[in-house]
Amino acid sequence: MPVPWPIEIPPYLFDHHSEGRCLLPAVEALIILAGAVKKFFPQVNLGHQGQARFPRFLVVPPETRRLEILVDLEPGEDGRCTAKLLTQVRSKSGGIGRYLNHAQVDFIPLSAGEAPSPEDEAVRPSIPEMILSPSSIYQELIPFGPAFQNIVGPAALSRTGAWADLSGGGGPADEALLGSPFPLDAAFHLACLWGQRFSDTVPFPTGFEKRIIYRKTEKGVPYLGRIIPVSVASSPLLFDVLIFDQSHNLCEEVKGLQMQDVSQGRLKPSSWLKAL
Q1: CB 3.0 to 4.6 Å from 80: which of 66, 76, 160, 166, for a disulfide?
Q2: Is the overall model pTM greater than 0.85, yes or no?
Q3: Are 185 and 100 within one domain?
């Protein structure tokens, strides 16, 4: 049964916007769900996540400082817990309402065989097809506000993937549960740039199959992000994501990141960016 879980909306979240609307970032939704799981089921492992889905944007109205949401938690016998972030809408008559699902994820035990990717995965590609500066990215291609401008070095794009220096960010996000959300959010930006360059879409993250946090990322710390196309012939585009520290230690990885156009074609890549 869903339970009320009101959340505070700090000002920095309004830097995450598209088409004139503030949208709760997927990485923030994961932190909210992790907090609810920790409160009610503290024995659940938060650093291993699976079957994440972000089926519907949660729009934050202007000037909002507190948002009334609900969480639904379903513990499993094997130590997992499925968590959903919901809102409720009622009929115009004020009668029976329905729940809208904005995010859901399974928190699952880490398998004994799980191990980080080898350090050589952190080697940068030698000949990218295109290099984009952070200023061009955030002025023209992903026009978020300062708190979510965390690709901080040139982004190198090729058909085999993309690389960039990332920042742990500086916004007052909760980093205690899952680490700083900003490097992973910036890695999603890399996947969006790849989609704009090579698939002629402006894709947003709509889910992933697995995420493992080996070392929590920290705000204010530099990282290296890599995205690897896995299946990109049709929508959704699928990528793997790797985030390394400056010593090439893998901090976290995401398998099967789903990226797709959710604007029904309203958002278009800049013509100069698209591959011939």
Answers
A1: 76
A2: yes
A3: no
